[in-house]
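Standup notes
- HV: blocked on the assembly model, inputs below
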Amino acid sequence: MPKSQFIDPSEVRKAGEITFNPIPVNQYSKTVEEEKANFSNEDLMRIYRDMVVIREFETMLNMIKIRGDYNGIAYDHPGPAHLSIGQEAAAVGMAYTLGVEDFIFGSHRSHGEILAKGLSAIAKLSDEQLMNVMESHFDGITFAPVKKGHTGTVKELAIKFLIYGTLAEIFARETGFNKGLGGSMHAFFTPFGVYPNNAIVGGSGDIAVGAALYKKVNRKEGIVVANIGDASMACGPVWEGLTFATMDQFNELWEGDMKGGLPLIINIMNNQYGMGGQTCGETAGYTVAARIGAGLNADQLHAERVDGYNPLAVIDAYKRKRKILEEKRGPVLLDVLTYRYSGHSPSDASSYRSKEEVEAWEAQDSIAWFGKELVKTGVATEEQLTGIKGDTISLMESSMKLAIDLEISPRMDMAKNPNLIGEMMFGNESVDRMEDRAPDVNHPMEENPRVQQLAKKERFAFDENGKAHSKIKTYAYRDGIFEAIVDRFYKDPTLIAYGEENRDWGGAFAVYRGLTEALPYHRLFNSPIAEAAIVGTAIGYAMCGGRVIPEIMYCDFLGRCGDQVFNQLPKWQAMSGNVIKMPVVLRVSVGSKYGAQHSQDWTALTAQIPGLKVVFPATPYDAKGLMNAALQGTDPVIFFESQRLYDMGEMFHKGGVPEGYYEIAIGEPDVKREGTDVTILTIGATLYRAIEAADILQEKYGISAEVIDARSLSPFNYEPVLASIKKTGRILISGDASTRGSFMKEMAQTISELAFDDLDAPPVVVGSRNWITPAYELENSFFPCADWMIDAIHEKMLPLKGHVVKNNFTSAEQIRRNKLGV
Amino acid sequence: MAIPVLMPRQGQSVETCILGEWVKKKGDAVKVGDILFSYETDKASFEEEAKADGILLDVFFAEGDEVPVLVNVAVIGAAGESVDEFRPGGQVAAPVAETAAAAEVVAEKATVPEVKTVSEPSGKVKISPRAKNLAEKSGVAYQQLHGSGPEGRIIERDIEAAAQVMPKLTPLAQEKAKAEGLKVGETTTGLGGKAVAKDLISYNPIYSDDFEVKKLTNMRKLIAKAMHTSLQNSAQLTHHMSADARTIMALRKKYKKALDAGQITQNITINDLVCFAVIKALKKFPQVNTHFIGDSMRWFKKVHLGLAVDTDRGLMVPAIKNADDLSLEGLSGQLQAIAGQCRKGNVSPELLAPEAATFTISNLGNYGVEMFTPVINIPQTAILGVCTIVPRPKDLGDGVYGFVPMMGLSLTYDHQALDGGEATLFLREIKEQIENLVI
């Protein structure tokens, strides 16, 4: 909360009322004849053709799915096909005015939008630009099959390219737009401004907001359209995205040219069904989806309902709404009314709606109606329309023949290259800045008060006599993270950071203290308490080419952004065939002292998901080095921190934390103390308790423990650990996560396989109990402590002479606890 | 009245704050709400306001000082009031955490851990993969080790300890040594001083494999043990003497004739006659009819005579109880009966115990042995070896020498129990009895 905004009780407590402006519903009333003034015959014919192309494309897919052939060409497509037959006018209307620099995001039912936007882009791009796009995409791999033997114009060739690339993608061919890794529900083609479609309902509801944020913050041309279904308006992340998109601060606090709303259109493709649930009358209460706009901001999101069965009505709306966005008064919400004749998927028997209803909509079919209008108004003849239909069918047939031919359109050769998909998971790039220009900052870095304060701090925890410096004079863990981040803010102009309390307060754990002074609002701001939007928008921001540090404060809030962290952030690099980069460093803090919902270590949840890099530094030196590495890369990194650590000084790295820039390679564990008799491998803040255990083992039992800090969870290099075990023969793995299903267990299992012959005892895991985290005062019976580790070593590895255990690590107890599930 | 200004406590974990800037100076008049000074924690900056009107009488810390929370920083009061009572006692005693200095604690490692072995491994041997590898590498036969790990598992340290005290063998050598009961010879030829199979020896490497190893029978083991124990636990030495056998041979001839004539039923042998004579001698030397049991001796009132009997299964020494009560015929009969039982294997085990006899006779005369050193059946004190009869020249009187049949006698006695003189006198008594035997 900025101090500049004063909440005056006498103002806010006054009586009054909120008034709403009427929300227009299907107000467009022009005839085709009237629109002839605004559109050339060619334009109108193109609109018709685009709708026919989409219809035929999906009809082809439908035939393949239900009959196994299209016009006699047999093919079996086992994958999904969520069709939008009936919605063509809405798609073409949406895309018609959009330029290549305008981005659309879609849903699982977005073939129509992809083709509409692609066809629109082809119409706008020059032949030269088109050739360049086609020839450079995967070095012409997608282009080659259609290029061969083509006679005709470049634009016709580009249309073939669009149809073929999409179809090959749906059929999982390496020649598809994303090497076949995206498929039907995730097909996209960024050179035409088609950004990822999303198989998770409402998945684009926050990602698209992040894309709009990218456009705004980086002063990029174009607007962003989020094509989401009417049913997705029930999804929490969509609401969070809308809340984020309508934050007052864009108008109230952001300064200069940054002042103003996001260039974003929330385009509800309202086909009136969410799978089999009817949003009007059954599963929602808004009746008209446009009503939602009234609840979000004073502009009511400029919401209106548009007749999506008339392409010209939709085009008209887009022309008007674009103006609003150009005036920085966005975002805008459009409720584009439409209908799908096809079921949710080919397996849908449409038992939830009557035949009469489908027939009634078919009777008003937009393509048939628009065709008649064109003939009626003399724009086209019946023969011309039949010709378009015929050409389109030939186009589909030839495209299909190419796309199903395994010689021309092979799948990824996994037999020859078993690691092909593995190579797609991460970019592993090293990039100083995502764009080369001067960053927006408020003052030179050396003038920053925090930077000045840090210059006076002790960068190693102990003085030359081994005596600890006082806490406040010690350069701490939080300072390490700050230094890496502030450095990157001055290097990478695209870098932004946000989350709860990130500005002014400096983050709940004071990592960002000093950044408020250094950065303008658009690079560091407070987000709504909406973790799904915090992460979801970051994904959209990164997808478009920016680097971003979202922060969700407590690890326990990961569940609040589950879809974003588990389904979106990790997937898009590989699903795009590495076209997309995802330079997102998600800061997550593991809590302490705050009980069951604020003290959990959920590292295993993220490390289990393919496509995420997961680190958990425990010292200032590692925190700075790993943050530098995370920010230098272009892959998503879940950066775990711990509230047990923020004020820790550097106790291990001799010479303290370097002032300059350095990176610590993600995935490399670090030996914090050398030993010969037993290895203790720790994750996160448990390091310090392991050191305590190592001291006791040495002093009391003459056992020399080697302590290794994992530092990273994924990727993870086991070699240093195996080398240690070769020496010690024993390993105990400890961390603050509840033991069952933890990453410690993953490590123990892997080590058992890799080091079996070197082991003198099974790898033993000492994690937290499988309980709720109790109050701070009881934490020692929940989190692993030094005496737990020693007891476990005594009980399971190496009986210690004269040792009296305090905790029960016997096999019988282990069996009992598992039986009870605690 | 003067009041102190405290360094506020900002949050539970904050122990000290850094004093930023003094907005008011010592001597300034302050009003409630006036900002006195700024301070900062590691997370944020704050300002402290005056909570009373008055004069800022004194300030105890300078800008930049690190001040523990809840310590007096300044005093506000009326001009002239004393501030001494508010002055913080010691200087800033920042609680500096003593770090567990990584002191080089050279904790004493247990020297050589005790190696415990079990005679027969019971069931499956529990051993860690690492210990097993080490055992194989260092040639330790782990099967007999007692594990010191959890649930008796043999772990690395057990092998390390064993390797220090047990000879190291290659796996093949281990197997061979175990199967054939071989030992490592003085020199080993394997890598790192390890014994390879060819380094194992039985007794003479020249014989190589030209022998068959046969397990000892239990009987043999018992005898071996008894013999070894005997030599280990007593101080044995043997005196030899011979006795004129003419009398005893004449007696034998006489009894043979009587047997052949059917006058008697018992075949009286030379051995029977010797035994009879020895019993008589023992009656005169009760100190020989004894058991030596360390710090005392058992002196027997009766003579229980042990007789060494050679059987297929080995040497047996049954006892004839109360032999001094028997007539010659009785003694002969019993000796014959018990020898038969021994050969058949149905002798009562009680009679075979070394404790059952008080003195033993071992007769090798039949085999032509001229002299030997019998081993005492301890705890008996002595044993008599009877040797073959050989003709020896003898002064027959009046300068006439002739060949006389002489019987060799070898008395082994435990020098712990008897002195040489006593033993010699006893042997001489036996000689006398044999030479002058009267039935």
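- HV (later): unblocked. Residues 90-112 of chain B have pLDDT under 50 and may be disordered. Chain B touches chain A at residues 13, 15-18, 41-44, 66, 94, 96-102, 105, 107-110, 128-131, 133, 148-150, 153, 155-157 (CB under 8 Å).
- Next: hand off to the docking folks.
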